[in-house]
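Notes continue from the previous slide.

Worked example: a multi-chain complex. Inputs as given:
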Amino acid sequence: MKLTLSWLKDHLDTDEPLTALADKLTMIGLEVEGIEDKAKALAPFTIAKVLTAEKHPNADKLQVCSVETGDGAPVQVVCGAPNARAGLVTVFAPPGTYIPAKDFTLGIGNIRGVESRGMLCSAAELEISDDHDGIIELPADAPVGQAYAAWAGLGDPVLDINLTPNRQDCAGVSGIARDLAAAGMGKFKDPSVKPIKGEFPCPVKVTVEDAKLCPGFALRLVKGVKNGPSPEWLQKRLAAIGLRPINALVDITNYLTFDRSRPLHVFDAAKVKGNLVVRRAQDGETLLALDGRTYTLDSNVCVIADEHGVESLAGIMGGELSGCSADTTDVLIESALWNEINIAQSGRKLGINTDARYRFERGVDPAFMVPGLDLATRLVMEFCGGTPSETVVVGNAFGDDRIIDFPLSEVKRLAGIEVSLTEARRILTHLGFMVAGSGAVVKVAVPSWRSDVHGKADIVEEIVRIVGVDKVPMTPFERGDAPRKPVLTQIQTRTRRAKRALAARGLTEAVTWSFIAKPNAEAFGGGQPELALANPIASDLSDMRPSLLPGLIAAAQANADRGFPDLALFEVGQIFKGDRPQDQFIAASGVRRGVAASQGLGRHWSGSAQASALDAKADAFAVLAAAGAPMAGLQIATGKLPAWLHPGRSGAIQIGPQNVLGYFGELHPRVLEQLGADGPLVAFEVILDKIPDAKQRPTRAKPALELSAFQPVSRDFAFIVGRKVQAADLVRAAQSIDKKLITSVGVFDVYEGKGIDPDKKSVAIAVTLQPRDKTMTDQEIDAVGARIVAEVTKKTGGVLRG
Amino acid sequence: MSNLENLQSQILADIAAASDEAALEAVRVGALGKKGSISALLATLGKMDPEQRKTEGAAINLAKDAVTQALTARRDVLKAAALDAKLAAETIDVTLPLREPLAEAGRLHPLSQVWDEVTTIFADMGFAVAEGPDIETDDYNFTKLNFPEGHPAREMHDTFYFNPKEDGSRLLLRTHTSPVQVRTMLSQKPPIRVICPGRTYRSDSDQTHTPMFHQVEGLVIDKGSHLGHLKWILHEFCKAFFEVDNVNMRFRPSFFPFTEPSLEVDIECRRGKDEIRFGEGEDWLEILGCGMVHPNVLTACGLDPDVYQGFAWGMGIDRIAMLKYGMSDLRQLFEADARWLAHYGFKPLDIPSLAGGLSS
């Protein structure tokens, strides 16, 4: 919402300086986003006269002009505008001038061999309108040499207010003035409108088919008008807030839209056939609207029609064919009320944003429908003459009687500040409320223009914003005797620990988009219709991610493309297996690319290697351990693996086949190819939600420590087994002999190659025995060893290496 | 000089000349071994008469002692020299560069760090952390929060929708974390003190907007909390979060459908070339919105607005992270550029705490 200072002063008697007014506006909820002082910004632009204009010797579309600037001899300027011609009075910028629209400072130019000492300007170049068809044309008597902005009345500073959607009443300058007056910044001038008596019946009848869509409609004819340019003061005001003056009748509607937040429409009565009907459009009906575009309508759109058909989109935009032009002699002025939701929906559907729509969809002052028409009529008669008809009014409920029982204690209860009834009454009265009573609970009548005020809390806001939120004292908010317990939920704690565990392994955390391209989602088990956005912002951000890996793979490739091929990235975040809350999980995932084994990124004298599936496994286990998973119970399964993994170099991490916590391994080359990523790449993904809950214990004490008095005994065994035998089976077989006595089984060597059959490998394990009640004899140790060998042989076919 | 004296000095000379332990051993064997020269002299004692034995024996034994002592001393010298030589041969290049410790090389995303910082501050003020799903219903994201159907305020949120279900309803990506407040009010009895951090979505993209971003909201519901408390909490938070002794804040009336009164909060700052300093300067920077929970919201969540009251606020985690740590372009937060992450990210042991400081 833009307005000028002088415009504001039409409605507010004030001596306050501009900055004080602006600061106050911001502090009462009408945030001033900018103050534009064109006179200051455009000071170097002066009025000048083109003396001669001749064709540029070397360019068809350029002219060489001699320009009288009022400062010494005429200067030579090269100009490309088609309307540059001898005798034209226009706007001149000398070298050294900053041109706002082009964001550069003018120098002395040489344009195709001809020197140019300055520039003749279009309105667009001065950022005073969008008009860039040619240079500005000023009246012949405009004073050459004077500052243009001051002469043009652009010296009136423009305030730009970031209006909140609830304050439709402040979409008019008078509403803003009322707020400022309530805040002590001046006196609000009486906004009332004297009715205009009609001199003959309105010849056009109005039928409203659906009062829900159109609660009120007022219409009158003014005949015998002479339309033409509106008065200069009005044109300047409209131009100052970025509107283009058109003709007096149209300018009046735009003026009242911004002056009183009362949008109006004017029809050229000669172009309207028969009576008007307010109705729903028929499907497929079309209208050529004032913006020059043809809209195809449906029955959700409310229109005003005559015997020709649709003439106007109700509350949004008028039709081109019935619009007012310089030839208009009889004008129909419409002032109506529209259903807010219908206007919003129609405007959105048709893609039309207008000043009228903005106001109607927020709910204009219903009580001002008829006065607004009277005010418009007065201006029409003032600017264009003519004789007004009587007013046709359809509908009868123009405003409700909202009366709120308001306990003054609400101010203290909600805002923590004491305000006296006198002060509250003063504020509310200034804002147009009526306050009755003087007890603990008063009755407050809400003005018709405040459609946003419904209850006690709204009244509190009115009082507090005018008193000033800065007056509300800060009050310590004690935490009381609430126990100091952890505030994170289990999954939050797991998330936090998972992130730091992975970073501590040298990985770098990425945050990638929650939505990914559909084929990528499908490659990782997603892409279901219920997880596809109806209105994605881009086709590659269309489906909720079923896994963090597509995003991480893309990120790894992007980094490789930037020249960083060795890297380890992780992410901990939400993934989506369905659209219900319980289908959203927290995954921790990572990828390693290039020379990025667990010991670190890049080649190093101390040893370095390409990341392998087992590095990804180590990452996964680090996350699970940090997140509190029961590590001793984890198993690796290689049977059923998702298609995005290399079938021979990957595994599932599970606690029994029913609870798969996640996967690790090398990514399948086919999937990498689909994602446009170069391999090999190793990855893991674990679902933190799937970790079983730890047992709750009543105290923090750790279980008692049992230390054996007897030394542990270690024995090594090397087995020759088939190449496909899994180490885990071998370890499990050894362990199973005596779970109490055997405290650990480690694999300390795996060998394939010379000396071993090509389809075999050697696996060496170290078994630690911990006697509890006596030292073991060699015989006893040997007996355990023999049982281990027998069991391993039975389970794996392995034989002790000779 | 007697023969014995000659022999002794010869042996001592040999000992001194022995260059390693093997040579020394040869000298020892030559002198004190079974067939050694001194052993041979000792063997002659048996054939002597007692008087001669007395004098000769003492002399030979003296010589033997001298030789033995010299051998021991020389052996120590040679052993030390041998060790020195061995160690000298073992020299390695200790100037070889190390790998960076993994815990120094890894990085947390700045959003994770700021999440932890914010949680730490509010936990100290007695706030619990609540979370909810990203995919929400229209009811929780809008209707219960007092956005009437078709209301223009809904348009302030460029909402991502899913396709309609058979019954006509359609889910959406939450446009703010406020539905978590709804879920909290529906599932917990007051008093309520929670913060709701989470990922949010709006269909918008430029230098200051990304279609995905993060918010942290706060909610207090009880029977007495008012705007004065809200101002205090936010002031305390800003001081703690930006790690300054004081910060000037400006609370301006504003509008949100779910709060009444509603406020926007600006923080005073000085804008430098590459940084923004808080607690000084003359510019105002908008950082959050807040207000008293709207009675319609309380009612929609099953609470009587004449009995219960409270306030809520919301701010962008991405935004406050950028302001605090001097990141200029929001989009870079989600580009996973390893260089950017190495620069703006945090080390895993940089754990925010009240005792040790948020950003140490």
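Summary box: Chain A touches chain B through 98 residues (CB under 8 Å). The radius of gyration of chain A is 41 Å.
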